Amino acid sequence: MGNIPFLQLFSFGPDGWGGPMVKAAGMTLAVAFCGYLLGGVIGILGAWAKLQGGWFLRAIADGYTTVLRGIPDLLVIFLFYFGAGAILTNFATFFGHDGFITLPGFVAGFLAIGVVAGAYHTEVIRGAVLAVNRGELEAATAVGMRPFVKFRRILAPLALRSALPGLGNVWQLVLKEAALVSVTGVVELVRQAQLGAGATRDPFSFYLAAGALYLCITTVTGLAFQAAETYYGRGVRRP
After folding, report:
1. Count of CB atoms within 10 A of residue 167's CB?
2. The Cα angle at residue 61 between residues 58 and 64, in degrees rounded to 5
3. Nearest to 121 by CA among 233, 41, 55
4. Which residue from 21, 56, 70, 151 puts its CA 20 to 30 A from 62's CA?
5. How many Cβ atoms are within 10 Å of 115's Cβ, its own excluded?
6. CB-based contacts of 236: which residues, under 8 Å, 6+ apart?
7. Any idea what DSSP says for residue 63?
8. How many CB atoms lie within 10 A of CB 156?
């Protein structure tokens, strides 16, 4: 079956693999997007803990970023999937339920990716906040701006300007990490390519198609981040 023309192999007809591959690409995007958003929330809290928290919160945030950036992402996914299964199974057994219970693969996958991404988000956001000129914040305080108004009009836009390149890099990292969630049973892009390669005995075509879809996703999202950088970088002289 390895002699089928490429376009026919990936057509959207009943015998083509175009539909399953695009659906799997959508699953990859969904896992990455959910994990990225979760990581962003964790990153904001982690950056706040490092910048404004007491010694205890700073110690927790430092330990979190050190540990999560120092262990393999695949291991974190396994810990979430099987660890959650052990906890839920023991909890259900307490109420008389028999059998293994765990989180759905999609949920366990994006939670694990989000926790890992949060460590990188934390450092990106912390660095961006530290890059804001203290004089501008002091001037806002001097004219009587309330803390929330100062955050919305001064700190957040200036920090976001500095953070966007790093946040774009984190997105690329998360997008590639989404390929690892196949170990939880999720059929994302790489897993679908493996299934197609096994069924047709044409691995080169499927992995080539998967690579092309990844490049399409990264190109479009990269352009979106570039547009955001241009928007928030208005009025700033480029080197």
Report:
1. 22
2. 150
3. 41
4. 151
5. 20
6. 161
7. H
8. 15
Q: What is the pLDDT of residue 102?
A: 75
Nearest Cα to Cα of residue 46 among 33, 31, 59, 32? 59
Q: Are 81 and 102 in contact (CB under 8 A)?
A: yes
48-97 pLDDT tens trace: 999 998 899 999 999 999 999 999 999 999 988 888 877 777 776 766 66
Which amino acid is residue 218, in one-letter code? Answer: T
For helices 105-131 and 156-177, the axis angle rounded to 10 degrees is 150
Q: E strands within the chain?
A: none
- In 3D space, the residue among 8, 12, 112 whose CA is nearest the CA of residue 68 turns out to be 112
SS3 234: coil
For tokens 């366990």, the residue is 108
3-class DSSP state for residue 25?
helix
Query: Quick check: 21 and 10 in contact, CB under 8 A?
Result: yes
Assign domain 26-187 to its CATH architecture: Orthogonal Bundle (1.10)
- Give per-residue pLDDT as tens, 162-190: 999 999 999 999 999 999 999 888 999 99
> What was the pLDDT predicted at 154?
84
**72: alpha, beta or left? (left if phi > 0; alpha if psi -120 to 50):** beta
Q: What is the pTM of this model?
A: 0.90
Residue position matching structure tokens 């920090």: 159
The residues, any chain, with a CB within 8 Å of residue 9's CB and separated by 6 or more, are 16, 17, 200, 202, 205
Residue 183 backbone class (left: φ over 0; alpha: ψ -120 to 50; beta: rest): alpha
Pull the structure tokens for residue 46. Answer: 């982690």
